[in-house]
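Minutes, project check-in
Item: structure for the 312-residue chain
Input as provided by the requester:
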Amino acid sequence: MGHGGLARLGRAVPVDEAPEGDEQLLDDSPGRLEGALEEDLTGVRRVVSIDPKPIGRTPRSNVATYTGLFNHVRRRFAQTPEARSRGYKPGRFSFNVTSGRCPTCEGEGSVMVELLFLPSVYTECPDCHGTRYKASTLEVTGHDPNIAEILAMSVEEAHAFFDGEEEIMRSLSALIDVGLGYLRLGQPATELSGGEAQRVKLASELQRAQRGDTLYVLDEPTSGLHCADTDRLVAHLQTLVEAGNTVVMVELDMRVAAAADHVIDLGPGAGEDGGTVVSSGTPTPVAERGVGASAKYLTAALEKSAARQRPA
């Protein structure tokens, strides 16, 4: 959304940090766009932009911490009889707090090795072996697993383990809904692809109470997803729309375009050859016009969608 739209919604215009050093060579961010609103934003009081930028630059940030579910898990461990007898508080089970974390890697689970002529790399901590914690912290278990073993679980495994615990299940269900059931809870941010980072952000947003007046802007959220997970994501986004929200997506997957309420096909080519609205409207008329490179692929996607919906 342009600066005019953000200002109208009472939001500060974001200022992106300039890349430093070698990062300038890898920076492909587009130039800042300007614009103004000619009409009122009826029904929109909040805008959420979800992009594929990393959720953190070090292994200290991970899926569990970013979504907030780790706060509930730590409180759960602090309530165990063993933790109470030792006087352990929730902070003891945080790898960001000195009392419970491994002093060698300071809770990162890995240590940075500086190489002479190559970029620095991370390797497993030789003392905690990647668990992030002191041995005394790992002695506390909650129904068998210790805190490190919980972080080693996949989202789907944790979903089965924490069944019935509403606060934790809310985050886990949101992650599964966006196709991230295979990620480990403690998976470091540095190991996530751009598409995965974006869907972690989306899951964090979707677990909140929906107000029905939000505009969501997503940048290719299905990148890297299996077709089945794409269908699951689209179905979940549809629930946002049905609740009165608006979802705008930059997307190349025609399965997603076929399910949209409105399609804007930009072209006629890519890069410098694009930038023109080739066709727009609901998916079927856009496909039937046959204008632009996307039309035939959209037609095929619509036909497959219709075939899936026909009774056997």
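Outcome recorded: Confidence is low (pLDDT under 50) at residues 12-28.
No further action items on this chain.
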